[in-house]
Design a protein that fits this description.
The protein is of the alpha+beta class and about 80 residues long. The chain contains 2 helices and 3 strands, in the order E-E-H-E-H. It has helices spanning about 45-55, 65-75, and strands at about 20-25, 35-40, 55-60. The radius of gyration is 13 Å and the shape is globular.
């Protein structure tokens, strides 16, 4: 992992990411596939709604917890 602080995926936002929004598009991704967007506190709800309306949103997890989970599976 790099030393750079992850930033929010919302267009034009440069705030530090706090949340991971895990999603997939069932028309093109297998069910277990997870793509991710990062969100700051301000944009979490907006990005979640955007993905949710389309049926893409699968999970919303704190970035810290997501990274801990990734580290555990990397071992």
């Amino acid at each position: 992992m790099s030393d750079e602080t992850p930033i929010c995926s919302a267009k034009g936002c440069r705030a530090d990411a706090v949340w991971v929004l895990a999603w997939n598009n069932p028309k093109i991704h297998t069910p277990e596939r997870r793509k991710t967007w990062l969100a700051c506190e301000e944009h979490r709800e907006h990005l979640s709604q955007f993905l949710g309306v389309r049926g893409f949103l699968k999970d919303v997890v704190l970035l810290e917890e997501w990274e801990e989970g990734s580290s555990a599976t990397d071992r």
